[in-house]
Amino acid sequence: MAQFLHFIFFLIITFSTPSLLAQSQSNQFCEAGIGYGESACGTASSSSSSSSKLLIKGGTVVNAHHQQVADVYIEDGIIVAVGDDVHVIDATGKFVMPGGIDPHTHLEFEFMNTVTVDDFFSGQAAALAGGTTMHIDFIIPANGNLTAGFETYEKKAKKSCMDYGFHMAITKWDETVSKEMELMVKEKGINSFKFFLAYKGFAMVNDELLLEGFKKCKSLGALAMVHAENGDGVIEGQRKMIELGITGPEGHALSRPAVLEGEATARAIRLADFVNTPLYVVHVMSIDAMEEVAKARKSGQRVIGEPVVSGYVMSPPIRKKGHDKALQAALSSGVLQLVGTDHCVFNSTQKASGIDDFRKIPNGVNGLEERMHVVWDIMVESGQISVTDYVRLTSTECARIFNIYPKKGAILPGSDADIIILNPNSSFEITAKSHHSRTDTNVYEGRKGKGKVEVTISGGRVVWENNELKVVPGTGKYIQMPPYSYLFDGIDKKDAIYLNSLQAPVKRAKSTT
């Protein structure tokens, strides 16, 4: 691979007038002075214009199952051709990969009497600087109302500067919620619903609601997701810590041990198996939960396990030494399928509200900007995964699970031109002073490593180059995600086999006595 690492990278960009809607939206923010980069505003010289012709020549193009030295030609935000016969400019390359897709974020999220500091502009700008070109955020219903929740998040997302999708949380159950789930899938482009087994009194659901939700998800071809911790156990763990006088941040992890994550993961997996519907377990943080996912997958059950890059005062919490290595091994062996962040950031002032009572600390950490670098450094540099595995774990598998592949997650003709160029010989250092998130702390503070995203292309626009962001709000697009991903293949056959096996109803002779 060394022969491909000498880098001469030329970009030819020819601009045309962007759509009136995108232009008017971005101009509103430009006039307000919101954006990154001197050339990000305006139409004549903007490198963030949505219509352009761009050639990446001589790079090592990496997809999830193949890599080759090839040229990538982009026109109007779409990849037109990938090959070795495009002759526009001379260049040799680094690793040219699909932009990252983060399956798990919370931007402008109202939680624990406060709101996360990153909104749909600042969080996405940070993501682009780190090589992530799409994310899927979680909508929390407004007092249980899914439509009202969707409309609220639509407004929040008007300031987006990259593509995004939505999951929907389900926090109560009645006939209205059931009908709204159908509306979300058929008309709003949502194909996943999340159920919290923790956060009692806020979003936690019981097993009866979980079963109803699983059945509805199956009927719609939507993916059921769970936050797997035993909520009643967490409440008891918190009470115990307070009684023992453990009130500081250390009480958070101590009150939610791995056994509670393992129990809830096992319960959700078994109920999903009972209904025969695919299941996605968010933020797998322990050996206990990972082993339940491994066991289910070995038996043939459709279960997806998503570890996240970090943990701190978040739920489930970061575990003691040993869990991290086990999760890394599970990623490299295919037991776990992709990596998210659960990016949900609060500043130090917000976190300090729980200095004397860990139960009041708003849960969450950063990761949108750091994920691609940290995963490369920990997993690729160490030899635990290949370059193609890296693309699968950070982009392609997410696109497949949420049914937007190969529009996203690939460098193929017809795919969206969301591309990164990563230099494996370049180094990075993570600090709160240099990151683009609005939080004043960083859980990776001071971390150094190899493998740096030097260029990010979003929708055919060069938005990150030479350590400079060129983005304005209002240029991102909502990506609708259709139901019935590959995880539903064969589900009906399994149902038929089960019904056949019952040999029911059984005919019985009536007694004559």
Automatic annotation (TrEMBL):
Belongs to the metallo-dependent hydrolases superfamily. Hydantoinase/dihydropyrimidinase family. The keyword Iron-sulfur does not apply. Pfam families: Amidohydro_1. Keywords: Hydrolase, Metal-binding, Signal. Its cofactor is Zn(2+). The lineage of its organism: Eukaryota, Viridiplantae, Streptophyta, Embryophyta, Tracheophyta. Its EC number is 3.5.2.2. One of its GO terms (cellular component) is cytosol. It catalyses: 5,6-dihydrouracil + H2O = 3-(carbamoylamino)propanoate + H(+). One of its GO terms (biological process) is pyrimidine nucleobase catabolic process. Residues 95-463 form the Amidohydrolase-related domain. Carbamylation allows a single lysine to coordinate two divalent metal cations. SUPFAM superfamilies: Composite domain of metallo-dependent hydrolases, Metallo-dependent hydrolases. Residues 1-22 form the signal peptide. This is dihydropyrimidinase. The modification N6-carboxylysine is found at K194. The keyword Cell cycle does not apply. GO terms for molecular function: dihydropyrimidinase activity; metal ion binding.
